[in-house]
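Notes from hallway chat w/ T.B., transcribed later so I don't forget. T.B. wanted the structure written out for a chain they're using in a teaching module, and asked if we could keep both sequence and structure tokens in one place. Agreed to drop them here.
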Amino acid sequence: MTVEKTNRIRSEFLNYLENGWLGEKDFYDSTACSARNEETARQFFKDVYAYAFEGGEEPNVRDY
């Protein structure tokens, strides 16, 4: 993947996080699991972002 494409994906993902556009339905669509609630679903996507772009730890779906 090119740096340009990576930056574009990162920017789009961050935009979704900042606008609260990722929630429980998206969690289910992404994992085939149900989140405990909307807040934990949003935290999952924040953690995925941190893992993908900031060197964070890999999220474990069972924690959400």
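Follow-up for T.B.: Residues 3-63 form one domain. Might be a good example for the class.
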